[in-house]
Amino acid sequence: MDAGYTVEQLRAAAADAVRAPSLHNTQPWRFRLHEGGIEIVVDQARRLPASDPTGWGARIACGAALYNLRLALAAAGTPASVRLRPYPGEPDVVARLVPDLPRRPTPAERSLHGAIGHRFSNRRPFWPDPVPADIRWQLGEAARAEQCWLELVIGTSAVNAFGEIARSAHRVLDRDPDYRAERAEWTRAEPAPDGVPAAAGGPQSEPQDLLPQRGFGNLHRAPGRDFEPEPLVAVLIAAGNTATDQIIAGQALQRVLLTATDAGLAVSMLSQPIEVPSAREQLRLSLGRFGTPQMVMRIGFGQPGWPTPRRMVDDVLDLPVSRL
Ligand SMILES: Cc1cc2nc3c(=O)[nH]c(=O)nc-3n(C[C@H](O)[C@H](O)[C@H](O)COP(=O)(O)O)c2cc1C
What we know:
alpha+beta, NADH Oxidase, 2 domains, five-stranded mixed beta sheet, binds flavin mononucleotide, oxidoreductase activity, Nitroreductase family protein
């Protein structure tokens, strides 16, 4: 197809893209409209120097935004042809999307697209009900469809061993005053277009908790309101750990999150064991898998919650020069 997307089509798709998750809700992306296509660019000004020194988190977030963009364009009838990291001289350009042949969206594309606006990180305790086997399978398929794997940590001893790795990584990170300062800086007591609202931050930690909470806001926790004793822990694994692998993992993450949302499940992310290299290696060895763990999710049936704020789409859109 010769004609490009219209600015209106791309603005609508970018409005879906910004609903993607990001470390501390920093939203480290810009969307550049160029010759009828759209490019996602890492916004280095919004990368967290202490919490994300390598840029892994920003690339995961941009990969997730890229998946939403692909889904929005497909759901609107003109899927994109995507090139990852298209310009060797501009490594921050995550992807360029141009129109492919128009076609009707599949039912799966429609329902995943419909889930974008309902997805949110649910950091509260989940109900103890297990995630049914057919949904576990769907989550694995979602990761595989995006060239990743989803490894479910099954059984009390495996979950306990994972908890130990995650808590120890959390302690390592928490010893760094710059890391703590960034977390505090991005926790929002007042309404804001970015950062983690304190009300979404989950209840304060207690010594008996199996998994570490990142601790945004530390909501009051009533006695006995413990987390589920055996959470479904899922580790997203990519083939490797290059910048491209991380962008691929971000897309797979978002497909898994939307598949979970569409199935009525709640998810929270915990990335401490990914951010500490020794913990990540321990996790990889404990799973006995090739590839590189890129994210960990806690999945279950959750209490109601609500999506967190985002910046306006026009604040992250760079229009073609000719239209300025
Ligand atoms: C790379 C990455 C790492 C994250 N790590 C954590 C984490 O360790 N703990 C946590 O509670 N949330 C984590 N999150 C979730 C973000 O805090 C969340 O996506 C952001 O605040 C926006 O909120 P939403 O997911 O409700 O839209 C992570 C998200 C990304 C993309």
